[in-house]
Amino acid sequence: MKKQAGIDWKSIFSFPYILYTLLGSLISVIALDGFLIPNGFVDGGVTAVSIIFEKAFLIHISIWLIVINIPFVYIGYRLVGKTFAVQSMIAILVTAGLMLIIRVPVITEDKLLMASFGGFLMGLGIGLVIRGGGVVDGLEIIAHYTKKRVGFTTSEIIMVFNTLVIIGAAVEFGHEAAMYSILVYYIAMKTSDYVVDGIEEFTSLSIVSKKDQEVKSLVVNEFGKAITVYKGERGYLPTSYHLKYDCDIVVAVVTRLEIHRIKQKVVQIDPDAFFFVQSIKEVRGSYLRHHDRSN
């Protein structure tokens, strides 16, 4: 194992980290205290185990949040980095502390609403903390490390662990609560993914057009996007397989907000243009640096 760098205290005391951690922890507490715990709903991970243990052993959830997370934070310290581990432990302590001092009244008795809004708020809180650089759930530390090694998303890795947690919820709170917990987990997962990735999640847009030169000029000069060009052929239609034409296939890395606008402009140039869109797990290199500077 490589020797780790020291703790980056500048990042830990930065305004974005403090803001994301406080806001994310507060929203998580509202979700837990006002929506999930009163109904025995769980969202997965260490928070779910803490809810189950609170019911089983009658010890406040804040204690379990700290105790159960300690081994995972240590693993994060060893495998991910010192700064990441410190940021995660701070977020966990803040969440546990807020659980002790904040009391959130039950807003509704409708279980579907409780599960839906509880999952949404929990995902929002978790996502904000992750954007700040830490986590509030120890299983996410394992997922953060594993994601770097195998390429799966954090949500996919955590889902494996949470299957066992849902089974535990069924035993402790009943099958109905466990089924609602699946809904809570799904909504929280989708919300946290959206918050972490944001509306600027990178996507690969490929364009095949007979007016490829005009398309290249449009994407680069009007939208300010770097492109990659593949030499290809268009044609090969079912009714005219023998017809084919050389063309440049234009590929650009764009955000979800830009896809529709680019497609509209391209269709104005070539109504018969062909598009296909692919999700991107990660973007690195000169394009990303250019994008960061332009924002």
Descriptive report:
With 295 residues, the chain is of the alpha+beta class. It folds into 2 domains: 9-197, no CATH class; 202-294, Alpha-Beta Plaits (2-Layer Sandwich), CATH 3.30.70.120. It is 64% helix and 14% strand. It has 12 helices and 4 strands, in the order αααααααααβαββαβα. The chain has helices spanning 9-12, 15-36, 45-57, 61-79, 82-101, 111-132, 138-150, 154-173, 175-197, 212-222, 256-269, 286-294; strands spanning 202-208, 227-237, 240-255, 274-279. A 4-stranded antiparallel sheet has the order 2-3-1-4. A hairpin with a 2-residue loop joins strand 2 (227-237) and strand 3.
Identify the notable features of this structure and list them briefly.
single chain, 295 residues, alpha+beta, Alpha-Beta Plaits, 12 helices
Topology (elements, then pairings):
Layout: H1 9-12, H2 15-36, H3 45-57, H4 61-79, H5 82-101, H6 111-132, H7 138-150, H8 154-173, H9 175-197, E1 202-208, H10 212-222, E2 227-237, E3 240-255, H11 256-269, E4 274-279, H12 286-294
Helix pairs in contact: 2-5, 2-6, 3-4, 3-8, 4-5, 4-7, 6-9, 7-8, 8-9, 10-11
